[in-house]
Amino acid sequence: MPGSPTDDAADRVRRAYEKTQSLDIAEVPASGEELADLARNWQADELPGLQRTIADLQLANLAQGIVDPVFAALATALKAVDLPSFSLLDAACATGYYGEVIHSLDPRDIAYSGCDYSLAMIESARAYYPDVPFSVQDLTALTHPDRSFDVVLLSGVLEHIPDYRRAIERSSRVADRYLIVHRCPTTSGPTHERTIGTQYNIRTPRTFFSLGLLKSEFSDTGFELVKSVEVYPRPGGWRRRLRRMAGRRLKGREQRGTLTLVFRRREASGRP
């Protein structure tokens, strides 16, 4: 029996995602020292093409009015940004497609810019979106001036950075009003879980964040959590697999999920 257009579209994305995952290595716990060298794997030249295979299907669905759960979660999170117009830095922009998503789903005047750790990603982003400002930046060493963007978006990146605390500090310095941590893998436990996992054709660092501890770490930089959005609110069917696309579940570990978190600078709370 044929499925609905939405189900068919989701199935195409699922099949495309599975085809890009060429490694099948069990996730294992790891120390911070073990993770440091693996972060460079995200600079691999073939990753933009693999990622774009999935993104192009999601964008095609979006053009037909079918909003991927990942895009819907970001659109919901952006509603917590209480500004009529704003600048936004996508601080792990990959091939830049979130600029297209944001302008499609949010009617406000949003000045989108992007940066990424990977030169290959930025070259691809510039080819797709030549009118958008992109730069190669290390999230742990951003060169942008203090508070130079109203909003900084961290999408699917914090978990892959061994020194994620430094990334929080640097992005908090650059963000004037809001930080959005999109597609953040979480654990219900009291401490973060540091692991080595796989994505696409690489081994990668992956942290599952304790929400309570992560809130405290952002609070240390002057930001408070104002909104939390479930990225995959319905766990049935293939969405259960997507909820775990950040890594396989380790036996005996705490409950995991994927959230989009909106943090606001505390002094901004009293602004008109």
Mind explaining what this structure looks like?
34% of the residues lie in helices and 27% in strands. It is α/β, with parallel strands linked by helices and 272 residues long. Strand 7 (193-199) and strand 8 (202-210) form a beta hairpin. Helix 1 (5-20) packs antiparallel against helix 3 (47-63) and helix 4 (69-78) crosses helix 5. The radius of gyration is 18 Å and the shape is globular. It starts with a helix and ends in a 7-residue tail after the last strand.
Q: In what range is the share of β-strand residues?
A: 25-35%
On the 0-100 scale, what is the average pLDDT?
Answer: 90
* pLDDT < 50 runs, ≥5 residues: 245-251
| CATH architecture label | 3-Layer(aba) Sandwich
| SS summary, helix count | 9
Give the gist of this structure:
By secondary structure, the chain is of the alpha/beta class.
List the keywords.
9 helices, globular, Rossmann fold, 272 residues
Produce the secondary structure layout.
Layout: H1 5-20, E1 28-29, H2 32-35, H3 47-63, H4 69-78, E2 85-90, H5 97-105, E3 109-116, H6 119-128, E4 134-136, E5 149-155, H7 164-174, E6 175-187, E7 193-199, E8 202-210, H8 211-219, E9 223-230, H9 238-243, E10 256-265
Parallel strand pairs: 2-3, 2-5, 3-4, 5-6, 6-8
Antiparallel strand pairs: 1-7, 6-10, 7-8, 9-10
Helix pairs in contact: 1-3, 4-5
